[in-house]
Amino acid sequence: MEIALNLDAAFTALADPTRRAILARLAKGEANVNQLAAPFDITQPAISQHLKVLEDAGLIICRVDGTKRPRRLAKAGIEAMDQWLAILRKALEKNYDRLDHVLAAMERQEKGKTR
Amino acid sequence: MSKLTLKTEGDTHVVVTRRFAAPPEAVYRAHTDPKLIQKWLLGPEGWTMPVCINEARVGGKFRYEWTNGKGGGFHITGEYVELQPYSRIVHIERMHLPDPTPDNHIETRFDVDGTGTLMTMRMTLPDAKTRATMLATGMEHGMEASYVRLEGML
After folding, report:
1. Partner residue opposite B20 with nearest CB, options A14, A16, A103
2. Contact across the interface for B2 and A96, Cβ inside 8 Å
3. ipTM rounded to 2 decimals
4. CATH no. for residue A28?
5. In whole numbers, what is the pLDDT of chain B averaged over residues?
6. Domain count, chain A
7. Which string of DSSP letters, residue by residue, matches chain B?
8. Which superfamily, per CATH, for B5-153?
9. Of A78, A113, B47, B57, which one is least surrounded by beta carbons within 10 A?
10. What are the chain A neighbours of B17 within 8 Å (beta carbons)?
């Protein structure tokens, strides 16, 4: 259940364009708050709030470096999201594999009728 | 050729595409005839759809009930907004878990693709948060499939 709640938090975190842009920046490497705030026309407290959401969701990690707090991607969290998406895709694929069989059976039936 | 794609689009959409060997008419029928729907729209292994009510007309309602045979289950209700045989379906649906989730507005297109069909299903959720929750919930349901597979391997 805890996993599911984190997952919910992770998808919520990803639902925001600024947070997605932050993740995209962090994919290139570690960055501090000033660097992360630079491309956006929003205040540093607002950026910090976004970082907190990403951190709580397990998508980024904060490191202590003297007075700085550089952030980086949490590899485990990102990989977990990827895995969940792959699993959802598989569940859907299972439905459509079954539909392939239903469609093939429909075609056989159609051919049977015309004979 | 049958590869499924699943991606998010903007803040509120989820788009699924899949190719089928059969023509659009057959794929459309398999999406609107309850007897056919019950054969494939089942999710993970072990789930069945004992109730499948489907009034495939504009304004018509549908209700799908799933069970895993072990006391687990949920249902979806919805309404048809547009039906263009055999190329396009627009409907609204919600899951009952048991509280209803916000409405999911879904457009499904069936386009001719060689001798087969390209299906494009575009979901629109009311907001980013709802889409996030839907994806997470879908994951939970999908997760059961992997457990089942794991059981089969042990």
Report:
1. A103
2. yes
3. 0.81
4. 1.10.10.10
5. 84
6. 1
7. ----EEEEETTTEEEEEEEESS-HHHHHHHHH-HHHHHHH---STT-EEEEEEE--STT-EEEEEEE-SSS-EEEEEEEEEEEETTTEEEEEEEEESSSBPPPEEEEEEEEEETTEEEEEEEEE-SSHHHHHHHHHHHHHHHHHHHHHHHHHH-
8. START domain (3.30.530.20)
9. A113
10. none
